[in-house]
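Quarterly update from the structural biology core.
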Amino acid sequence: MKTSPSKLSLGLIATAVLTLTACGGGGGASGTAGGGAPGTTVTGVAATGLAIEGGAVTLQCKTGTTAAATTAADGSFTVDVSSVTLPCVAKVDYADSTGSHRLHSLVKTAGNVNITPITDMVVAGLSTSGVAADVKASDVDGYTDAQILTATQRVQTDLESKGIRTANLPIDVIRTKFEAKHGLTDGDSHDGVLDEIGSKLGGSDQVLSESELDDVENEFKSSHDSSQLGTSTGQAGNASAGKASYDAMCSSCHGAGI
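Predicted structure, tokenized:
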């Protein structure tokens, strides 16, 4: 019995497909991009200009809270996120000459995450209340990269208005790696902005305490929500009407707290 060319061709094609599937080819392989295992750690640096040594970093996540990780002399930390569900709110608790403090940041994906006064300002700016501590992991789940970028740019503008030079900050202040001053090692230019924040906005000790940071963030929020606004035509601004219009047309992209 002869096999027709058409049947032979179909048989060869079927064999090739089965072989490709068994080898994981064909563009349909499961797993993460590049074939690597999903990230299971969050690493970063906690700093105020000086590295935060001995701070306790915890992540409160969509499901679960991580065990505390202690920051090293250079402010670095590593947190295991294999048993929680991202996203998370990152917190570092630490003490210095002005007392006990807490700073916040955001964790959208595993990888590098910084925790600094600037990231705390960004989180506060994303919060509808203007308070970083009010942000929950469920809120982070709804923040787009565009919203976080807008909040970051707004913080930079606010800092510039107070005489802080922000040109040396990266576009992404949360996820871009940097080095903080520790021991005899100088910090990088990103860390230099944190130093300037402490020297210009902190007290006589040139350290920005948690209460002073709260005051700065409240001032920033008040400037965004001010009803004492005018229009280009010279008419008095209507903050309530403007907010309603913004909420309806803009907040989905730029965030509720802008």
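Confidence is low (pLDDT under 50) at residues 1-38, 227-240.
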